[in-house]
Structures are given as structure tokens and as C-alpha cells.
Amino acid sequence: MARPTKFRRVEFFPENNYFVPWGKPKCEIEEIVLKVEELEAMRLKDIEDLNQEECAEKMQVSRQTFQNIIDSARKKIAIALTEGKAISISGGHYTTKLCKFRCLQCGTTYEINYDQDRAICPSCGSEKVMCSKKAGFCKNWCKGNNTNLNT
């Protein structure tokens, strides 16, 4: 029986998560799903220029697991580019130390790094903030599920 998959640490979430070849209607194109951790692996290796060991450490996986993730990502991108397929970035088995918080006082939604930032609303200074679960980013890393929820 295989071990359960370990969560991969991800620090970047793209604003645009769907890409379609120019001039082709979305409804007529096959799509390749690129997992969030696969995009993160390519970002760390190809954009941040980190070596494999540094990438694996940042994602909190072994070097072999990192290599498997990036190999899968590059193959998917190559197939999409050469065969004219759409790329959808979603899903995967990842976690993050960024949490989306919502201020109960003014309604502002913002991201914090729970390791470094305090759970205080940047707009109004209120400490009445809570983790915004519907953002889907907190997974098991969020330490502030109902942080400073003083009524």
C-alpha cells in the first residue's frame, strides 16, 4: 500500500489560470490541467533560478519528488504548446503559508503570511478578522481559523 501524498508548499497563485491558443474557441479545444504545485516547481526552477535541492526544500518535498513534479509540468506544457491545447491551472495536493483573511469590521479581504504578519486589517486596523475558508488556500497550514475574533 502506497504512502499518502505529502502536501507540497506553494507560495505563488496565478491571477490568470486558463490559457487558450489564439484564434481557437474555448469550446473546441482539449485542455491540459496543470496542477498548482507543478506551476510552482517551474516558477522556482525556471524563473527564480534555484537549484533542485533549493526548490525541493522550498516546496518541502524530496529532490526526487521535486524532479517528478517538474518533469510532469514540463511535459504537460510541451504537449499543450505543440498540440494546440488549452492550459488550465487548478487542483493538486498543495498547501501554503499564505492565508486569506476577511475583516469583520469593514469587510476587506487580504492575504497574510501567518509566519510573519499579524492578523490586523490593513484598511481599518481592526483585530476582528477571520480566515476566509472559501478562498481555499488555507488547507492545514492556517493557524488563524478564527484569529482575534473578539466580539
Automatic annotation (TrEMBL):
A matching Pfam family: DUF134
Origin: domain of life: Bacteria
InterPro entries, per database record: RNA_pol_sigma_r3/r4-like, UPF0251, WH-like_DNA-bd_sf
Family: Belongs to the UPF0251 family.
HAMAP family, per database record: UPF0251
UniProt-recorded name of the protein: UPF0251 protein psyc5s11_05190
